[in-house]
Design a protein that fits this description.
alpha/beta; 6-stranded mixed sheet; globular
């Protein structure tokens, strides 16, 4: 059974007198340990899809099932618990609390969930090492670079050992060097921790780190390419670029 499944997923909303069809019957499967990138032009529905997969928005039609739990039958409280305990989120603008240190920001989901911090101490230490911030654990966000803040955000998303991590344009606010480091870190968390990851990105270089790239257009899946088994990043990028050109033709 896939770890995440979307069936006939649709999302509509009103814009004045008009109805906008953000998603039109999307079917989507994610296996445990996969790293998937979602690409598409602005307004294609890629961020809408990510929000529905993460339970941040409700579908107009269709179903999302995460680890056997169907979102449509959960009330708001139960859906909040699913998000808190099963989904790690990484956003473009980091969303760190400015008054907390890097270590405290990483631990925040555990504190909110009322967990025993002593139990998770080894996990926090391992994540600080993974993201290369063990020496900057006591620094607050304004004392960290943008890339370092995003590394804190990734460690925060991983700290609860979530079923899946959803990242919305995680490199969109970073320079190219920092962006590559962040995508490499996500790749490592998939390879070394067995983490399942979905990334929305407009950047082909970022998408090249994923095992599979799904292209969204006009609210539908327009194409999908697999990078699995291909270690040459240049070849991965070339396939993605060629697919984008075909879709734009």
């Amino acid at each position: 059974m896939p770890i995440l499944q979307a069936e006939h997923l649709a999302k509509e909303y009103s814009l004045g007198e008009h109805t906008v069809h953000a998603l039109r019957g999307v079917d989507f499967l994610v296996e445990k340990g996969q790293f998937i990138a979602i690409m598409g032009p602005s307004g294609s529905g890629k961020s809408t899809l990510l929000h529905l997969l993460g339970g941040l928005d409700t579908a107009s039609d269709g179903e999302v099932t995460l680890a056997g739990q169907r979102f449509s039958v959960l009330d708001d409280n139960k859906l909040t618990l699913v998000r808190r305990r099963n989904i790690g989120f990484v956003f473009q603008f980091f969303n760190l609390l400015p008054t907390l240190t890097a270590e405290e920001n990483i631990a925040l989901p555990l504190i909110i969930d009322g967990q025993d911090m002593r139990k998770y101490r080894p996990r926090i230490e391992a994540l600080l090492d993974l993201v290369g911030l063990a020496g900057r654990r006591d620094h607050k966000p304004d004392q960290l670079s943008g890339g370092e803040q995003q590394r804190v955000a990734i460690a925060r998303a991983l700290v609860t050992e979530p079923t899946i991590v959803l990242a919305d344009e995680p490199t969109g606010n970073l320079d190219s060097k920092s962006g590559a480091a962040i995508m490499g870190l996500l790749r490592r968390s998939c390879d070394e921790l067995g983490q399942t990851i979905i990334v929305v990105s407009h950047d082909p270089k970022a998408a090249a780190y994923a095992d599979s790239v799904v292209f969204i257009g006009d609210g539908r899946i327009a194409a999908q390419v697999s990078n699995a088994g291909e270690d040459d990043m240049a070849k991965r990028l070339r396939v993605i670029m060629e697919t984008m050109e075909k879709l734009q033709a």
